[in-house]
Fold this protein.
Amino acid sequence: MIRAAASALWSHWRRHPVQLVTLLAGIALAAGLWSAVQAINAEARASYAKAAAQIGADRLDRLSRTDGGPISVEDYVTLRRSGWQVAAVLQDRLRLNDTVVTVTGIDLVAWSDLPAITEGIATTAITPAEALTAPGLVFARPETAQTLRDHPGFPPVVNTDALPLGRVLTDIGVAEKLLNRPGQITHLLVLPDQPFGAPDLAEVAPDLTWHAARGTQDIARLTNSFHLNLTAFGLLSFVVGLFIVHGTIGLAFEQRRPMIRTLRALGLPLSVLTRLVLLELLALALAGGLVGLLLGYLVAASLLPDVAVTLRGLYGAPVEDSLALRPAWLASGLAMAVAGTLLASAQALWRFSNLPILAAPGQHGWSARPRAMKTQSLAGLSAILIGLAAFALFDGLVAGFALMAGCLLGATLLLPPVLAVGLMAADRLAHGPVAEWFVADMRAQLPSLSLALMALLLALAANIGVGTMVASFRLTFDGWLDQRLTSTLYVTARDDAQGAALAKWMAPRADAVLPIRSVEISSDAHPLFVYGIVDHDSYREHWPLIAAGADVWDRVTTGQAALVNEQMARRDGLWPGSVVTLAPGWELPVAGVYSDYGNPTGQAIVALDLLLMHFPNVPNTRFGVHLPMDRAAQLAEDLGRDFGLPPDAVILQGALKAQSRAIFEKTFVVTGALNVLTLGVAGFAILTSLLTLWTQRLPQLAPVWALGLTRAQLARLELWRALALATMTAVLALPLGLLLAWLLLAVVNVAAFGWRLPMHLFPYDWLRLFTLALITAGLAATLPALRLRRLPPAHLLKVFANER
Amino acid sequence: MLLTVDHVTKTYPGGPPVLQGATLSMSAGETIALTGESGSGKSTLLHLIAALDRFDAGEIAVDGISLSALDDHGRAAVRRDRVAVVFQQFNLIPTLTVGQNLSFHARLANRLDPGWVDEIASRLGLQDLLARYPENLSGGQQQRVAIGRAMAVRPKLLLADEPTGNLDETTAGAVLDLMLDLVRTSGTALLLVTHSQAVAARLDRHAHLAGGRVT
Ligand SMILES: Nc1ncnc2c1ncn2[C@@H]1O[C@H](COP(=O)(O)OP(=O)(O)OP(=O)(O)O)[C@@H](O)[C@H]1O
Ligand SMILES: [Mg+2]
């Protein structure tokens, strides 16, 4: 009996293949876009983790010279003799033709983590001796290794997966030769096991400062904003996909009511039926989920290279651009598909399990709707109010997300009532029988189309919100680059001596040579970089101040006050008028706050003389050079020739800006692609609701056709209807999207990253988006419209002949 | 002649021929009852005359207009301006009120006469239902609205396909009385499909459809 019931129940799908395909597509889209985003995020996180795990080196505390200079071999030997477990490191960037790698040379005798690196290597075990004796070995990821092998004279390269991209690990002796920096140590690693009783650092090596490991948390924090965006997109696509599932499942259950009644009248218990239905849903969810995973993998794989470039360029976060298949990802994708399907069918399931055996014939309720609308409006308003209340009660991320969720949910619920009110107004404007019917019919269609329209609203609002945020970010960043990069040329000397020579040499050849000197002051909580500047118009005119007291530059340049960056200002509440503690015992009033995007750490600016008073040994190796643009290239060339400076030590401002901007373009490619995808899903939701409505549609259209409208006219009206509803939805989506953008920029961003981005409006983008939305809705309505146009009259006539 | 049907044939795809040379003519103001067995093609013939479907051969002329030559637009115009149809059921536009339904066809045809619509509404006893939606009406009420809508356009030719087939005997009788009364006073020609000999007897003429021909 159960088998008979099951086959009767499931035969529904055989008779409604479009419904089945729609349902599977809905599940697949929901699971697919969600898991695509998850895959990208997971890949990026794995890359960060890999970078963090690299040789353990970045997880270790370090010692470096307070003045930033190289550590002498004598200091190293003294420290080790006194019992300190430290390993010397020489690290620098190395240019090979057109790529740059970071060479990390570690004293492999002192540092015993080599086995951890060689573990992942397929070939026979490598002994430390091999790595130490000439010509030595270098370790790198296979991708990096390939470039190294192509380079003549490079020591043998061993592949390992334990290193991040672009990193070359080797013994310090090999690194000295590769980098041509004999006898130099950039910093010391403090190894995990320090013996008891070793003397204080201040006693043995007073020049050295201890830096707690910062690891890759900073990268993670910065890139989090990017991942947050992606996740928001993924979640929205998921929800939009669920709308499709909800709609189709509801319809399928509705259409199977008579059959279910018959089965129950024949004596099949409800519990058995419920189990059969659940089984069916599970199977559908798994099938759709599998297709979705495939889809997600393809989307992720095609987007990942751009994402990788963005993250690498924007934050220096190393992300590989190939996608690995992770079992956890597969499992979570399927779990999301199942959970989502069950969630979307909850209402249908509930109705199903409460279905009386005998029921009144289905009511369409053209007239009895106002009460439902009222309930929905109240629910929508409450959602917004709860969001507002949460916003008022909490602060930071929680507040932002609560208001965002409340507004999105509330606006979505309010959409149908608001549209109904709009149509009531349109009703009054409509003249002529066809126009009146058109509006009345649109109102009648609203409940059946509202899910799809809600999906469209969400997709559009998300697009406007995230689009505005990203574009505002770009515009702000662009302007900020112009303000911050005022020097024509940025020059980095090898050491202080060369720095002094350079400054002397450049002075007569340039309009101004501004030293860029800074010191890192570590504190328990947050690292702080203090920069010393000399007075110059370029600061006074261009520096991106977002808050300033009176005579800000006069006070800073004369050493009476300091500037702090926005992150620090927001974090510690330091605004003009407060007092900042730069180092123990060194306090200054705050004269102004400047924006400093992409920098996770605190930063302060004081007069150079003042800085040198506190830290006499601040290295003097970097300079910003002002001179007319047309002479910059020549000077750069001369510098390279006369001082033997490598190409990346002399950077033209234009190149720097171009590089930064190129990275942003990549961000746009990714958000643009996701925009199109979510809109596509919303369009698909419209299409599926129109298709599933098809059978209910004919009795509404046939009388009008019989009274003298052509099928072509009706088809055109169907198209117009979809366009009109989409337009109204788009108009409502605009304020919602802008609110979303404001929340992202002014609340979430500040709470998560410490800086607030000014909001810019991009009407041209909205226009483009609206056009896209209309095209989407139009395309979705085209198929049913064409079908109507070609419909044989005999089908329409059946409406009047058949008993329904 | 108001209507001529001349040797019309019609076959639905994949089925046997339904009409095989059906011929019929009607003059203005005439009322004809069309009878025939179930499946004999009565509804089919009515649909062809109302320009709702196409025939395979022969010719139908309504008010001097030959239907075979018309495209979709021309056929829509015939439906709108020349004929009015009352079906067995589902005549009404579900999204419009009774009042809107009543005047819809007349407004489409650009022949709205509010006084006439009011008169029809009162004669059919619909005055109190005007603001309701069709789904809230009984079957008899719905058919009265359908007849009212057809009459409101003042058609020269009214086609009715078992308009009372879904109603109980008493209601059916009352609805039919109203329709015949309206048709006679306005001089409208009526082609009425019915199974009932009693109904057929009340009309001017009686046509019987059998074997794809009218006798
Ligand atoms: N749309 C259609 N497609 C295919 N065959 C049809 C269609 N409409 C009617 N037929 C067939 O054409 C024949 C005539 O149908 P029609 O509806 O005209 O009969 P009728 O005389 O009106 O019958 P009834 O008294 O039962 O209403 C029947 O055999 C029917 O099956
Ligand atoms: Mg019939």
Remarks:
- The first helix of chain B runs from residue 42 to 49.
- The helical segments of chain B are 42-49, 72-81, 98-108, 114-123, 139-152, 169-186, 197-201.
- The pocket of adenosine-5'-triphosphate (ligand 1) is lined by residues A 794, 798, 801; B 12, 15, 18, 36, 38-44 (CB under 6 Å).
- Residues 3-214 of chain B form a domain with the Rossmann fold fold (CATH 3.40.50.300).
